[in-house]
Write a structure and sequence with these properties.
It holds the Pfam family YdjM. By secondary structure, the protein is mainly α. The chain is built from 4 helices and no strands.
């Protein structure tokens, strides 16, 4: 998937989490969940960074 799709999934998961009233009433928790879902949704792309790092170290 492309980066836009990962971003959309992260925001969608954070939005679904906000259906829980306990999360809505705690703004800090809502922000933490948004950050966690955005970082987690981009986790499949982290291997690209390590691959590029390996290629750069070989040269």
């Amino acid at each position: 998937m492309d980066t836009g799709s990962h971003l959309l999934f992260g925001v969608t998961l954070a939005g679904l989490a906000c259906l829980e009233p306990a999360i809505v009433h705690e703004p800090a928790l809502a922000h933490a969940i948004l950050a966690g879902t955005l970082i987690g949704s981009h986790a499949p792309d982290f291997d690209t960074v390590t691959r590029l790092k390996g290629v750069l170290l070989r040269t």
